[in-house]
């Protein structure tokens, strides 16, 4: 793989392990998948003659964003008036949405994955975790295989969360029988995917996470077996926790969800939960002590959260936090950069009602970069420094949008927001998006194919 030399970057957000700092008027040199150097007046040195030099004057360069929670398949139910949360109760909404999900076919899962990842790349996301828990029986078991195919097409770093639901609706879940699996089916396919795709080497582009959908929709044994498999294979674990189900879990098992998961072993430095907006201070302390992380999804809070996630309390406990888009059932976009802005502004809205101050804007950028990398168990992504993966995005700030903002690149995304696609997105040393185009791909064709797959469904 060739290298690149980006000359005269206006600002680069560098983090050599001691927090982010702004380096002004520097160059970035990449060599294959890695960053070779960041500094002033860099030369090609001993690098191959094929190294490409690009003028980066005016660019603010940021570490690639790391998405830690999504449901790609839900992209096919975006912006639908008949599924408006404001007009339906939760139970009415579930009764309408799951029959739609149960009709998706294999091609739908592929094209919805292309759709979600393409939008993320345009807005600076270089690593995507998806929680794919929808397995209609007619669609077969190769749905995550197709997601890896989509990631390969777009050259995106992809962590696949193999989800699943095992508890029948007749026993209290919200899942139609057409989407149920047995625990044995679920575990067997998790093992197959790990054996086929999981790569734990540096700069890995493919990893697998064992991710039963949520305790309220699964048998106890599903979580017990998930822990056994994940720990045996050395992979991460993920599920939904603290999004309104704790009272149900307590009624079933005599304890709330955090304690229930901990009792089953589904907690620790190799585990992260999505949402967590209804958790008590005591539960947050327990998670911090065990090392369990949180994927905070700010935009769904607008629609479905009864409370605003207490990020200041999590920060005070040094609880590991990343950011996620979540699926289109509760967020109609796949723009993680927009989520950085939303996360910060939402906390500011509630600052006067909280005991602790809102973390500074730069921390929210950290949640979306190094914080997300930590949740996924990655030490090679999430920050810019020599030896780290060449995952970054660039914004040309020589526009009216940025007049008066350029003195503080660290706070720009959280406070001001970025309202347009990046000027460049690089993943693993490869430019995948530049000047409004996916490099080597025909976006019009991708669009037409996705629209055709969507049109094949009858809603």
Automatic annotation (TrEMBL):
This is Hydroxydechloroatrazine ethylaminohydrolase. GO terms for molecular function: hydrolase activity, acting on carbon-nitrogen (but not peptide) bonds. Keywords: Hydrolase. Belongs to the metallo-dependent hydrolases superfamily. ATZ/TRZ family. Residues 60-432 form the Amidohydrolase-related domain. The keyword Hydrolase applies. It holds the Pfam family Amidohydro_1. Its EC number is 3.5.99.3.
């Amino acid at each position: 793989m060739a290298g690149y030399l980006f000359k005269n970057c206006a600002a680069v957000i560098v983090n050599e392990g001691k927090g982010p700092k702004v380096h002004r008027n520097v160059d970035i040199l990449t060599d294959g998948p890695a960053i070779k150097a960041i500094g002033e007046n860099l030369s090609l040195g001993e690098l191959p003659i094929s190294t490409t030099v690009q003028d980066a004057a005016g660019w603010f360069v940021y570490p690639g964003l790391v998405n830690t929670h999504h449901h790609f398949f839900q992209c096919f139910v975006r912006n639908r008036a008949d599924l408006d949360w404001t007009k339906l109760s939760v139970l009415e909404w579930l009764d309408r949405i799951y029959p739609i999900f149960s009709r998706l076919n294999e091609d739908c899962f592929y094209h919805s994955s292309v759709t979600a990842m393409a939008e993320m790349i345009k807005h600076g996301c270089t690593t995507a975790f998806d929680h794919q828990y929808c397995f209609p029986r007619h669609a077969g078991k190769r749905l995550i295989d197709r997601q890896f195919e989509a990631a390969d097409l777009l050259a995106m770093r992809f962590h696949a969360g193999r989800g699943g639901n095992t508890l029948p609706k007749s026993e209290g879940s919200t899942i139609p029988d057409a989407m149920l699996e047995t625990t044995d089916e679920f575990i067997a396919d998790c093992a197959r995917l790990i054996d086929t795709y999981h790569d734990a080497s540096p700069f890995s582009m493919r990893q697998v996470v064992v991710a039963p959908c949520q305790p309220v929709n699964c048998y106890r044994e599903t979580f017990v077996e998930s822990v056994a498999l994940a720990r045996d294979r050395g992979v991460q674990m993920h599920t939904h926790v603290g999004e309104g189900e704790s009272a149900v879990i307590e009624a079933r098992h005599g304890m709330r969800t955090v304690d229930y998961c901990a009792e089953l072993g589904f907690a620790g430095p190799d585990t992260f939960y999505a949402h967590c907006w209804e958790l008590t201070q005591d539960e947050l302390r327990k998670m911090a002590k065990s090392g369990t992380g949180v994927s905070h999804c700010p935009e769904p809070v607008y629609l479905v959260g009864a409370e605003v996630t207490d990020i200041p309390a999590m920060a005070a406990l040094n609880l590991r936090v990343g950011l996620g888009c979540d699926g289109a059932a509760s967020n109609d976009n796949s723009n993680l950069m927009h989520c950085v802005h939303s996360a910060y502004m939402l906390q500011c809205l509630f600052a006067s009602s909280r005991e602790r101050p809102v973390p500074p804007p730069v921390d929210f950028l950290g949640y979306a970069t190094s914080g997300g990398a930590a949740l996924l168990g990655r030490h090679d992504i999430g920050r810019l420094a020599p030896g780290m993966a060449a995952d970054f995005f660039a914004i040309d700030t020589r526009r009216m949008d940025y007049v008066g903002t350029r003195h503080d690149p660290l706070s720009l995304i959280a406070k001001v927001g970025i309202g347009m696609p990046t000027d460049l997105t690089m993943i693993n040393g490869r430019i995948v998006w530049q000047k409004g185009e996916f490099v080597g791909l025909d976006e019009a064709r991708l669009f037409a194919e996705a629209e055709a797959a969507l049109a094949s469904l009858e809603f």
